[in-house]
Amino acid sequence: MAEPFFVWCDTTGLGRNVFVFFRRSFRLAGDPDQDSLEATLHLFADTRYRLWVNGAIVAYGPARFLPSHPEYDTVDLRPWLKKGFNTLVVEANTFGANNFQAMPSVGGFIAWGEVQTGDGQVDLSTPGEWKMLRTDAWDQEAPAYSFAQAPAEIVDMRVVPAGVHGPAFDDRHWPAPVVVERQDAWGEPAPRSIPMLTMDLYEPEKVLVHSPLADREEVVGARVPGEKPYAGGQRVRCCFGTYIFSPCEQDVTLGAFWGPLFLNGQEIASVRHAVVANRLDYPVWLRAGWNFLYGEPEIVSTRWGILIALPGGRGLVASADRDIDCPETMVFSQAVPEDVLCAARAAGVPTEISQMPVLDVPWHKARRGEPIPLPARLSGWDTPLSRVVEQPSTVRDLCVPAGRDWVVVFDFGKQFMGHIALDVESAPGTILDVAYDERLRADGLAAMFRANPAAVDNADRFVTSGGRERIEGFRSRGARYVQLAVRNAAEPVTLHSVAVRNTLYPMAPEGRFECSDPVLNWTWSAGVETIRITMETVLNADSWRERAMYCNDTVVIYNSLATFWSDPAMIRRCLRLYARSQSPEGLLCGVVPAWWTPGTGAVHFWTALVHDYVQRTADLELLRELWPNVLLALAAPQFTPGPRGLLGDEEQVVWFDQSPTAQSQTGENGVFNAHHYGALRRAADLAGMLNDGEAAAQFRARARRFKRAFQALWDEKTGRYATTLHDGRPDPGPAPHANVLALYYDLAEGDRAQAALAYVEDYLSDEKFLGTAHLELYFHFWALEVLYKHERVELAEHVMRRTWGHMKNAGAWALWEAIWFTQQDTGQLCQGWAAAPLIAMAHRVLGVRPTPGRPQEVLIAPTAATLTYARGAVAHPAGPIEVDWRLHEGAEGRWLELAVSAPRALEVRVAPEGPLAGIPVRATVRKP
Length: 928
What we know:
By secondary structure, the protein is an alpha+beta fold. Strands 11, 14, 15, 30, 31, 32, 33, 34, 35 and 36 form a ten-stranded mixed sheet that branches. Strands 18, 20, 21, 24, 26, 27 and 29 form a seven-stranded antiparallel sheet that branches. Strands 5-4-7-2-10 form a five-stranded antiparallel sheet, with no helix packed on it.
């Protein structure tokens, strides 16, 4: 087998959102089922690939990676091979754009392997006999799907060569792949460290909207090309101008995505649209003849959009040149810093095109009649004519008539994450705009831009090639609802099926939970489903908007996941990804892989993750591998204490929840310093496990100094710890987060601990629920543990019942990002960091707690104050541990029946805690 090399369509691998086809054809003389001895393909692509074998989609990959540590996939080709001609097609895409799923890199594809039969051997190494074609089917300038994700898909299936994925296609005119000049852009590829993702198809449950779209207005506009320029903290804007012809004097309402707008030299006021989240309405008076509309919209992300809605039936025409027949509708600039634009129009607001600001950037014109390449913006402005669906349970073979635009909304019943899969029959050039969302508007369409009006473009576009075809999205999407708008249909369209190919980590939960409280039962089920549906090749925080692995989120997600699933492959992979993002001075990226710079906060959370994993599993092999990273991280110069022995300054912004004020997130911050103290304590524990007494002593000494320094945050006036210090003075604002962590890390002792606990209890009371500085879902990871540790069991159960019950009663199908955000009809509706109650249910209600560092020793210490029974299983590296307890009332009083079933290798000790500690116990322990 020849040595493989990285190949691409050019030697550099540079470019934004570049797609390249790679084809490898070969002939098999015999029957693969009988004669094939081996048919294995190893492959890797930067950034993503899709593998087809003889016209069937076989795999998506690779697992998220750092260029220094790529992981290749291995695919057994035998199930898809046949006698005669066979073809492998790899569609490879390099992002080349800011995102939270990949590090900055260049395009490259490498493959090797062989097909062995009785007739000989086929070498699959690149470049070898592979063929290549760079395709323009995907819009290279598509807007980012969100501020955290790669470009959306705008793909013209007419440009994809017909039959390209099948063996009958003739690729003899295709060139050979080009060997990438920088073969050292990647480290040595290693085998994939986790299983391949699932590939099952999931269909919707029902149709919610099946309606023509209202044609009450004409939308004109364009996409502002290029990146958002760096402006030193300034706002960035573009400017545009369009003439609007009106046949008479009249009052009308224009629609626009962003302002300010000026009509005939005068700024016009806006009102919010009653339904659409990303639209402003501008009631104006138009004079007869030509009017001039000028705008300076702010640009907040790359490939921004300008949209203007003209009411229909009023005779209005937008033109770039005072000509009704002009082929362009407007003139617009690329983005510039706000002060540059203001200086350029110092003479005043333009009243005609010739007065537009003189800017040293490219200018563009919007073509009339061309589909505006902004599928999300247009989908957000769509309006259905009807909400009536005659057969909502019919989700297949839906017919859409020709001649007018149409919309269909599908409800999948729960959150999904995967690739949209369409089986459609249409005329060539039919546009299918597919939007994905977790919410619906009052009119039944997706609530586009409500959760984040500026930085989410959550729709893809597919232009059909004609006839019956199967279209599958290249990028994975997550949501509950799919909105499909059919545009420009010259002939009737049949949607034979609309489904999602779920691409999720193949995880089967080992844990389960049930108790006498239905809210806790729902919370467990919703928490397991939330984490399951967000797991790909990393532990995503969510499945919809960001799809990123945030280090602070991962602390909660991993500890929750570990209660019902024990396989270590995923967390080991995540820990290594973070470690490999380390800067030379020791800092780690808070999101990995991503276009982020390393920071300080991730060090604390990553150290906690390493600690929690190793304490749970005693995996000293991985600890030895990561220990140099721990030492380097905690030796970073940014962790040099200041004059009061604390860390922080007025420049550093500490994120710790959605509720704090900006003032509380700077200075010598209590939350940041508490987490740093915790990291030092955990590092000392890890050093002890490695028998590194010197390092353990040094970390313990540093921790003791930090504990003393932390007391400077104690505020005698208020009788609790302040959230931060500014110039040595305690911030007088609310400080529940700092006090929770003071208790969690045992930074508070004696009377101060009691005062801090009383302060936290007050903030967890019903009166303070969702108050000014409440504790949001994320921070309950620490708050619930504090309550159990201080034997406030009844309050802990009440907090879970009230807070997560609020979600249940609101009809949630997964756990939310935040209660307050959701009450404002914003925020995400499927976020793993809200799963902390799973930890309380496993470790406290069922009471399963392995001894730290010695997982073979397990304490069964159930506790409950308002529950009468609980049963379930908790995941463990040796196998699930089952617990079933029930309180009984009899003539002899109350007693506790407790049954435990544990793997034979474990040492089990039973000792109920808290309110259950003083009750007679009848316990049985089985080791089958």
